[in-house]
């Protein structure tokens, strides 16, 4: 009986420590996301697109984002999974009936790269690559100054 309790304690401790590491990674990436980003480049199956070039995306640390373009604002929420390989992001557009845009991301202090499947509730891209006959987009952003 004592051996089982000790094993349970060890397993719980490992899960808590591991959970703390995941939470630390999430907190770090949320902090990196926070702020205003300017869209520098958008690539899709047809090549480079100017449709969103120059638009701004504003992230907060509570999981909200705003896309601002030509005086219009679109609101959404987002969730990060920094422990996935590649790192994952899900965006839920407020006025889109709760549908989810799934993607992956790479982030540094001043550069954010997203690869998303633009059709809501579709499969998540597995790599940073645009493929023919898909709605995959690669969006490169730079931190606004």
Brief account:
The chain has one helix and nine strands, in the order H-E-E-E-E-E-E-E-E-E.
What is the H-and-E element order? HEEEEEEEEE
Query: Termini distance?
Result: 61 Å
- Number of spatially distinct domains: 1
| CATH fold call | Lipocalin
Silhouette: globular
The SS-based structural class is alpha+beta
Main pleated-sheet profile: 8 strands, antiparallel, barrel
Number of continuous helical runs: 1
Helix content: 10-25%
- Mean pLDDT across residues: 85
User: Uncertain regions: pLDDT < 50 for 5+ in a row?
Assistant: 1-19
The CATH architecture is Beta Barrel
Number of strands: 9
- Trace the largest sheet across and list its strands: 1-3-4-5-6-7-8-9
Output the CATH class name.
Mainly Beta
* Content of β-strand: 35-45%
Please compute the radius of gyration using only Cα atoms: 18 Å
Structural description of this entry:
- With 145 residues, this protein is an alpha+beta fold.
- The chain has a single domain (2-143), classed as Lipocalin (Beta Barrel).
- Helices cover 22% and strands 43% of the residues.
- The protein contains one helix and nine strands.
- The chain has one helix at 2-33, and strands at 35-44, 47-49, 56-59, 64-69, 72-81, 87-93, 100-107, 111-117, 136-143.
- Strands 1-3-4-5-6-7-8-9 form an eight-stranded antiparallel beta barrel.
- It is globular.
